[in-house]
Design brief:
By secondary structure, this protein is of the alpha/beta class. It is built from 12 helices and 13 strands. The longest helix has 19 residues, at 97-115. 50% of the residues are buried. Bound molecules: 2-succinylbenzoate and magnesium ion. Residues 188, 190, 213-214, 238, 260, 289 line the site of magnesium ion (MG).
């Protein structure tokens, strides 16, 4: 299909509640909406870079630059056949996975709209609803954390992830575990520990957690292997797995027992599927991570999580957990069994609420062939 033009929209959206992790606290989330125009159709993709380089080195600023100055010139006015063809075209760009993933998502949306098929069908997803959980940020105290978790459990979430950091690990986690002895519970450190400080995590090994996510350095797999050897609890890698190769390294090194798949971090849905397939062939469970996506990225995550290897609940919560007003007309809600329905309309299956989009827009550019 011929890609006629590309529009980048830099968004800043207020969160329903502030979100705090080991790398910072945000009250608003930024991202870039990528719109590809082809044959009268619009395909949407979400680049999940945020304003600050806390989760990874990419930001809305770096992604804007890479998208505008390097990716757009390689595809605009060109015939791009599919996601693999897109990946080949941008192969000369090093890194910047979040930027490339935003465009790949828009390509999938176009492919689905052209074929009259949902993204779930295109990716080979099998489920029409997927198990989900909620990711709860650091709170002011263990008591406030238990209060926040209680609210989400009352809404129907059966799996909860809490954020931890040095000094905010054992007390927080054991308080939630004491309040909810049977809850599916996991923790995420976002690379806040070193092998030296990881002794603080040892008490968590007896709290019957589903997993401990990304305790160590984001660019490290080897030390995670050392840590996993000392823990009964599964280590799960997020930040460290930025290509399917890294997933292979982690599997071969026994650096983790679970992998969190985020298409953004991996450079696109196709790469997420590749990691899924690899893990499935090794019997390694995966789950779909989240980046506080708008309805666009949420639709994409739901479709991906419908693949058979996603055997653990994803960080894909209901729209109301994130945004009072989203940029999609469709909102996602939690079913009584802690699942969310996978969209079934062609492509991502969502439509844009242009007045909401306008309200959140910081900047916009359209790029067409010169
Ligand atoms: O590490 O999983 C993470 C949000 C932003 C950046 C990194 C992470 C997260 C989350 C939120 O945990 C998951 C969600 O979208 O609900
Ligand atoms: Mg994480």
């Amino acid at each position: 299909m011929k890609l006629d033009s590309l529009t980048l929209t830099h968004l800043r959206m207020p969160l329903v509640t502030a979100f705090e992790t080991s790398f910072g606290r945000i009250t608003h989330r930024e991202c870039i909406l990528v719109t590809l125009h082809s044959d009268g159709l619009s395909g949407y993709g979400e680049c999940v870079a945020d304003r600050d380089p806390g989760y990874c080195y990419e930001t809305t600023g770096t992604a804007w630059h890479i998208l505008k100055d390097f990716i757009a010139p390689l595809i605009i006015g060109q015939e791009v056949v599919d996601a693999d063809d897109f990946q080949r075209r941008v192969d000369g760009i090093r890194g910047h996975q979040l930027a490339r993933a935003g465009v790949e998502m828009a390509i999938w949306d176009l492919l689905g709209k052209r074929a009259g098929k949902s993204l779930r069908e295109l990716l080979g997803g099998e489920r029409t609803k997927v198990d989900v959980g909620v990711s709860v940020g650091l709170q002011a105290s263990p008591e406030k954390l238990v209060h926040a978790v209680t609210g989400y459990v009352a809404q129907g979430y059966r799996r909860v992830k809490i954020k931890i950091k040095p000094g905010r690990d054992e007390a927080d986690t054991s308080s939630v575990r004491a309040a909810f002895p049977n809850l599916l519970l996991q923790v995420d450190a976002n690379s806040a520990y070193t092998l030296k400080t990881s002794a603080a995590l040892k008490p968590l090994d007896d709290l019957n957690l589903l997993l401990i996510e990304q305790p160590l350095y984001e660019d490290d797999i080897w030390d995670h292997r050392k840590l996993q050897a000392e823990f009964k609890t599964a280590i799960c890698l997020d930040e460290s797995i930025v290509t399917p190769r890294h997933a292979r390294y982690a599997i071969e090194m026994d650096a983790c027992r679970i992998i969190n798949i985020k298409p953004g971090r991996l450079g696109g849905l196709s790469q997420g599927v590749a990691v899924h397939d690899l893990c499935k062939s090794h019997g390694m469970p995966v789950w779909c991570g989240g980046m506080l996506e708008t309805g666009v990225g949420r639709a994409s995550n739901l479709a991906l999580a419908s693949l058979p290897g996603f055997t653990l609940p994803g960080d894909i919560s209901a729209s109301e957990r994130y945004y009072l007003r989203d940029i999609t007309r469709e909102r996602f809600s939690l079913n009584a069994d802690s699942t969310i329905d996978v969209p079934s309309a062609p492509g991502l299956g969502v439509t844009i609420d242009s007045s909401a989009l306008r309200a959140y827009t910081l900047a916009e550019i359209s790029l067409a062939p010169k």
